[in-house]
Design a protein that fits this description.
- This protein is α+β, with helices and mostly antiparallel strands.
- About 20% of the residues lie in helices and about 30% in strands.
- It has two helices and seven strands; from the N terminus they run ββββαβββα.
- It is globular, with a radius of gyration of 17 Å.
- The chain starts with about 20 loop residues before the first strand and ends with a helix.
């Protein structure tokens, strides 16, 4: 039987001559009150606008671990299992450069009180039908999530 070994930081890093996109993860956290958890961005781009909690993946993380870490850093909240929703990769979706984001989601039985941290200036719950102006393509993401997941599985 072959046993797979975890990737270690001692492996050589290879460099390629072609550009590569950055990878981010974002969390769609929905409460039992049909509210979504958002953060107010504390930095540019989109400083002062609201967004889904998330950020850049570290080189030694899985996608889900990166999403859990970013969620906790920006809101102080931990959730159990996250489910993968979709990936978004429009060429100009992020003004910082070519970025692909993988979205995860979870449902909470109650609205835990978030505590803004890291690069989030604020964190709070918003009713899904009363969203503020959102950064990046997060309005589109939430609308697609509502249509493809919420409208099908949540009454």
């Amino acid at each position: 039987m072959t046993v797979l070994q975890p990737v270690t930081r001692n492996l050589p890093m290879y460099s390629y001559s072609y550009p590569r996109p950055a990878v981010t993860t974002d969390a769609i956290i929905i409460s039992n009150r049909k509210s979504v958890l958002l953060i107010e961005r504390g930095r540019e781009p989109y400083q002062g606008k609201w967004a889904l909690p998330g950020g850049f993946m570290d080189m030694d993380e899985s996608l889900e671990i990166a999403c859990q870490r970013e969620l906790e850093e920006e809101t102080g909240l931990r959730v159990g299992e996250l489910k993968q929703f979709k990936a978004y990769g429009a060429v100009n979706r992020d003004p910082r450069g070519r970025t692909i984001s993988v979205l995860f989601y979870a449902f909470l039985e109650e609205e835990k009180i978030p505590l803004a941290g890291d690069d989030a200036a604020n964190a709070r719950w918003f009713p899904l039908d009363q969203l503020p102006e959102l950064a990046f393509d997060h309005q589109q993401i939430i609308e697609e999530f509502k249509a493809e997941v919420l409208d099908r599985f949540v009454s």
